[in-house]
Design brief:
single chain, about 180 residues, alpha+beta, Peptide Deformylase, five-stranded antiparallel sheet, two-stranded antiparallel ribbon, 3 helices, 7 strands
Length: about 180
């Protein structure tokens, strides 16, 4: 397993639409393991392959308190949406930024597991929100796209400034937020 670099907004590669997975082989298994390791290290509760510049329809999620129950979703497709929930979201590709986003409260999902077996399941609460957030990544969409143009531009400028400061010699070790992003 290897830790992968997470792309950050406004990197244009985050806007790439992911392709369906057609080969369920050792390379896919390695990608899944790398995504899980990267998600835990970030730390986050969800990660899409697009976020690490791999444009395949692969998502990993773990909303468990112990962070030891990863859910692998390959070629995920939302079949039904129900209700509405407004949740504060964060994103590993938009570090340190959190804002309210409205999404479906419950979803019905069709996907494949890491071996290629197809399944359907119903999800709600934070898991439903996280799945929708990660599928957006696979479609080239970010949670900041749900915000106003003004907010999105402020976020872009803030992240650009933080990146410049991080790269400067004076910016040594500092970071961290108690919140977890996906």
């Amino acid at each position: 397993m290897a830790f992968r670099t997470i792309l950050e907004f406004p990197d244009p590669r985050l806007r790439t639409r992911a392709h369906p997975v057609t080969r369920f082989d050792a390379a896919l298994g390695t990608l899944v393991d790398d995504l899980i390791e990267t998600m835990y290290a970030a730390p986050g509760i969800g990660l899409a392959a697009t976020q690490v510049d791999v444009h395949q329809r692969v998502i990993v999620i773990d909303v468990s308190a112990e962070h030891n129950q990863p859910l692998v979703l390959i070629n995920p497709q939302i079949l039904a949406r129900e209700g509405e929930a407004s949740t504060e979201e964060g994103c590993l590709s938009v570090p340190g930024i959190f804002d309210e986003v409205k999404r479906a409260a419950k979803i019905r999902l069709r996907a494949q597991d890491r071996s290629g077996a197809a399944f359907e399941a119903d999800y709600d609460d934070i898991l439903a929100v996280c799945i929708q957030h990660e599928i957006d990544h696979l479609d080239g969409k970010l949670f900041v796209d749900y915000l106003s143009d003004l907010k999105r531009e402020r976020i872009r400028k803030k992240l650009d400034k933080e990146r410049r400061e991080r790269l400067s010699p004076a910016a040594a070790a500092s970071s961290g937020s108690a919140r977890r992003a996906y």
